[in-house]
Amino acid sequence: MTTLDLSQGWSLARAERPRERSRHCSAPCSVLSVLREHGEIPDPLVGSSIPDGVRDALAEDWVFVRQFDSPPDFSDAADVRLEIDSLDTRAEVTLGNATLARSRDPWRPLSLPVRDVLKPGRNVLRIRFPRETRETAPDKPALAFGSSWSPALPDRGIAGGVRLRAWSGARLASVGCGQRHAAAGPAELLVGGWVESQLGPGAPDAASLVVRVKVRDSAGAPIFDGRATMSPGGGGAYQAVVRIAEPRLWWPAGLGEQPLYEVEVSLFRFVRRGTPALLLDSRSLRIGLRTLRTEERPDGTVAMLCNGRNAFLRGAVWAAPPQCVGAPAAAAAMEVALTSLRDANANAVTLAPGAPPPPEEFWDLCDALGLVVLGAADPAARAAEADSISAPAFLAHPCIPDNPAAEPTEETGLRFGRSAVAWPDAETLRAALPDGGRNPNCPALDARCALRGGGSALVAAIAAEWPVPARADLWFRLSQLAAAARFRAFAASVRSDPRATGLFIEPLQSLWAAADASAIDSDGRPKALLHEAARSFAPESLFARIDSEGRPEALFVNSTALTRRALSLHWRLATLDGRSIAQGRLPILVPAFETRRIALPPAAAPGRGDDPASVALWLAVRDSEGFTIARDFLLFAPPRALALQDPALSLSVTQLPDQDGEQVFRVAVSAGAAAFGVRLESDAVPALFGDNDFALDPDETLEVPATPLTRTDAVRFRAALRVSSLYDIAAR
Fold it and tell me: Which residue segments constitute the domains of the chain, with CATH numbers given?
């Protein structure tokens, strides 16, 4: 097997002007990403509208060209194929004067025979992409044509790698893995597939072919090294059964570790006795040992079971960044987003319907991070149909359920968290609004608002519950707090339902600088919703709410394998200036993987002489040593009616020992009065904060870990810190 990588050395030109100057590029890439890299168009994702240059580029036909010299040994090969991982979407592939394919589906990789088309010496490969519309490209991912959260940017391009692969004698036509698990003890790994042999003169004797299988554990230690059993006559099916006496199981994040085993399959030909075997082909996979499937409960709802254990799924809707951001930027954004989601205590993602197919790196990251991927039925089916060596490998990813058709819907019990409250980011607001205004209503923002009725409806939706901000650009900050508060209430509702098996944010990340209720903005920075998700997704989480009879109650969720004993719920009813009205303590015991609803005494609610707009209920679950495990609060009036007082926020900074080579500070935040939507920022010394956008009881000091992106000292870091709250946003 000989491979010639063709991912580098491409050039892009307008189809009608093939002699214009070359724009060098490397696959994967798109028309807009290449034009942006060469400075011919602005960033399509920034601003209050799509620039004219971008619209013009989308209206033209484009062609990617790659010239290459055919290796001399390719002419002697039994078969030579051009492999293209993904083309988005309508494309015509030609080699020289021969048309190889007309692609219409970005999910399916292409494997095109080219042995009889290749010329000795220089060859020219062209991929032409015509202008696309919903009508001309019905199989194009629907989000390319816009949605409530993203613009209409039907970009086109080479969405994966490109290579020539030649073989003679025989090759591994397919490689796949299966698993068998006993209730306890050993597991069996089944490695199998098909060998395709050359026909005619020079074909190998079937008996001379040997398939060797090696399996290593996550530490690289060998587990198995032996021959696979070939079907009678050879040149067909092969299989090896690997018994793993003490399997290390793969778990979703939070339930256990994510060990991955390496499987290497090699095809050898023995020419004659006494001579070394000739390696013809090899493939390697990384797999996780586990069972992961949905099963129907007796009540008709569906549970997700991993290794026989009920796994409550917590995650977000995933839609990959558009191609126009460029392959390196998209890969970096993908890793940051998925890692941030895992760090927010999530263990799942679900693919957005109509989104582009994720690249191979996406599945590898989800394997390593312990993120279960729902909604993979379509890519799994299309990959299985494709004539590609990668198709069975796709199905080996442990992050994909054994029955990948599981979707988060009300019928299955897997539910989304939704919020229509979302404003454009500050940059878009500045570009669209006049200076000095507080009312963000304008035609430019109506086009960016994900709520029927445009900006006016959004103003009304937020102003119904929240105070009007002092400046127009603060609407963005306020909408984040509103989205987080709505998600918190939704999370409490889902976790109180014993039939629910999942909780999802929609969507995870911004697709451009526009209106959206995402948890991560277009620059990869966490928004209020991500910090709120981290609290709602925590293995032990506390929710304060009003029950169906109008009384305050607490909901404590234990998603761990430990029964939590010697815990106590501390409650304090206080005025917003910090004066206690009543307080108490309730012992609680919560078994593993269970939720407890805790009714609070009548004294925990405002009395007749208390103004609901001036009172808050503060809750904390603490262990026997007084350590706070989870916190929450409850307001008895909407935020717009609160009698907010200056919380006089104060900070102190302590440097801690480095963790994993990174500098860490502890930021202690305290307040003189109740503070809501407290946010730490550090523009001069950018940093990642372990928590943000939180409420602060003046009776407590909250300690937040902070990791600066560049090394500094405690004095400089403290000088760069700024802290604000809802009091600073609201107009007074």
Answer: 2-166 (2.60.120.260), 170-287 (2.60.40.10), 294-426+481-537 (3.20.20.80), 540-643 (2.60.40.10), 650-729 (2.60.40.10)
